[in-house]
């Protein structure tokens, strides 16, 4: 039983998966923020183009 607990404490496979998950979450937040900012800018530009064409 002691050997099983010792092996469990030394296993780092779960920590690696969690690190990759945190990296993916960070990248997702950056991408969502960038797309949201670009979308707002494009909406403003198309709105001004639409008004100038009328």
Commentary on this structure:
The protein contains 2 helices and no strands. It has helices spanning 2-10, 13-53. It starts with a helix and ends with a helix.
| Portion of residues within helices | over 70%
Number of helical regions: 2
- In percent terms, what proportion of residues is strand? under 5%
Q: Quote the distance from N terminus to C terminus.
A: 79 Å
Rg calculated over all Cα atoms: 24 Å
Following the backbone from N to C, one meets helices and strands in this order, namely HH
Structural class: mainly alpha
Please, what is the average pLDDT? 88
What are the low-pLDDT stretches, counting only 5+ consecutive residues below 50? none
* Strands, total number: 0
What multimeric state do the chains show? Answer: single chain
Descriptive terms for the model:
54 residues, mainly alpha, 2 helices, 93% helix, rod-shaped
List the helices and strands and how they pair.
Layout: H1 2-10, H2 13-53
């Amino acid at each position: 039983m002691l050997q099983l607990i010792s092996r469990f404490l030394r296993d780092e496979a779960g920590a690696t998966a969690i690190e990759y998950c945190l990296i993916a979450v960070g990248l997702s937040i950056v991408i969502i923020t960038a797309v949201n900012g670009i979308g707002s800018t494009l909406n403003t530009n198309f709105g001004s183009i639409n008004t100038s064409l009328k």
